[in-house]
Design goal:
Layout (H helix, E strand, L loop, with lengths): L2 H8 L30 E6 L7 H10 L3 H11 L5 E11 L5 E3 L20 H15 L23 E7 L5 E8 L2 E7 L2 E2 L3 E5 L2 E5 L1 E4 L5 E4 L9 E2 L3 E5 L1 E10 L9 E11 L2 E12 L3 E11 L3 E8 L4 E3 L8 E5 L6 E8 L13 E6 L5 E6 L6 H4 L2
Parallel strand pairs: 1-12, 14-21
Antiparallel strand pairs: 1-5, 2-3, 2-4, 2-6, 4-5, 6-9, 7-8, 8-13, 10-11, 14-17, 15-16, 15-18, 18-20, 19-21, 22-23
């Protein structure tokens, strides 16, 4: 490849399906002019990394380092559903490869796109994609939510959509076809799995794509040739979904003379081999009955272990006989609860008071975490005064 050819390749700055040319340079690279009247462009959105080029995978890895794990989980959701992709045409493309913004995007922070060249940075292309998303999805441009984007607040409807589904070969693919040449904004509808929520970074897609044939010749690929399709991926971001855990304590017998029975529970949650939640809570009884405490904000999919670390000197656990009984569950979107049962054991030792330090686990953007202490409401009052 010549030096100019390398410079041309550098223009594919968004990797995931973006080929961008400096104005007036097309014929210099031997591909001829773009047939801007074409209306049969076709693109295939996929979760199959084997279909993506090395350049696309490199850019995808920068945007979503854990994309392989994300793609696998997203593909599992397609057994019973689909992922909706929306395409908005934001610019026309001239025969020489330069772009002209459509009127709806002319004063939107996208003006510089018409002067884009091989030195335009990936950040600039990302900023333009966000600006375009802000026009078609004004309620949440940064996140590019798409639940209600069909002719949304701006009245702009997608030019076309694709539904990524499992095909008969088990591949996750969605086809958008009948597209005019030009620059498109790609927005993907958020997806919820059993334990995570996926949002997708919007990006810009140029049709046709500048590519090379197997013989090494330069060409414009419109995606209409089944033997040489245009495959592009998604750029997912993942965040935890959260649920509540109810700890139930049943006290079947109680000694009125001793007064006050306190029970303390240690709670730990692990997800993907990482501690994601740690806390200590207590329940105080003044008679027989049932008491509960609800813990909020535990990641779904985490394995939670609740251990009764203190039950007073005169009460014993009736269901396990263990001195430190524990229960483990995996958090789901449904109701999550564990139950412990104690009874008075006939001894005259005091029921005991408890002072509880309350900890929450905070995860930073870099993946590190720390435990934060805060005062816990509901401690045994007499103990808290000591």
């Amino acid at each position: 490849m010549t030096g100019k050819g390398k410079r041309m390749k550098k223009a594919a700055v968004l990797g995931l399906a973006l080929s961008v040319l400096a104005a007036g340079t097309v014929t210099a690279y031997g591909a001829g002019g773009i047939d801007r009247e074409r209306t049969d462009c076709r693109v295939a959105f996929t979760l199959d990394v084997e279909e993506l080029s090395e350049d696309d995978l490199g850019s995808l890895g920068q945007a979503s380092p854990d994309y392989k794990l994300y793609y696998e989980e997203l593909a599992e959701t397609l057994e019973e559903g689909s992922i909706r992709v929306e395409l908005y045409r934001v610019a026309e493309v001239d025969a020489d490869g330069s772009f002209r913004l459509l009127s709806a995007y002319g004063e939107s922070g996208l003006e510089g796109l018409e002067a884009a060249d091989a030195d335009t940075t990936a950040k600039q292309w990302s900023d333009w994609a966000q600006a375009a998303a802000g026009i078609v999805l004004p309620e949440d441009a940064e996140r590019a939510e798409t639940e209600n984007t069909a002719a949304g607040a701006t009245g702009i409807s997608p030019d076309t959509t694709a539904q990524i589904r499992k095909n008969p070969d088990g591949k996750a693919v969605g086809i958008a076809e009948g597209l005019r040449t030009g620059m498109y904004l790609v927005c993907v509808e958020p997806v919820e799995t059993a334990s995570n929520r996926y949002r997708f970074i919007p990006y810009l897609l140029s049709l046709p794509r500048y590519s090379y044939t197997q013989e090494g010749n330069e060409e414009w690929n419109y995606g209409d040739d089944q033997a040489n399709p245009i495959y592009v991926g998604l750029k997912p971001e993942r965040e935890d979904r959260y649920g509540d855990l109810v700890i139930e304590k049943i006290l079947t017998s109680y000694n009125e003379t001793l007064q006050g029975a306190s029970f303390v529970f240690e709670v730990k949650a692990v997800k993907d081999q990482t501690l994601v939640y740690s806390d200590v809570v207590s329940l105080v009884f003044d008679g027989c009955g049932r008491e509960t405490v609800t813990l909020e904000g535990i990641p779904l999919g985490a394995e939670v272990t609740v251990t009764e670390v203190y039950s007073g000197a005169s009460y014993r656990e009736t269901t396990s006989g263990s001195t430190s009984p524990s229960h483990s569950i995996v958090m789901t979107a449904e109701e999550n609860s564990v139950s412990f049962e104690n009874e008075y054991d006939g001894r005259l030792n005091g029921g005991g008071a408890s002072v509880v330090n309350h900890f929450t686990y905070e995860k930073a953007e870099d993946g590190s975490g720390r435990l934060n202490w805060e005062a816990l409401a509901g401690n045994n009052d007499s103990a808290a005064e000591r």
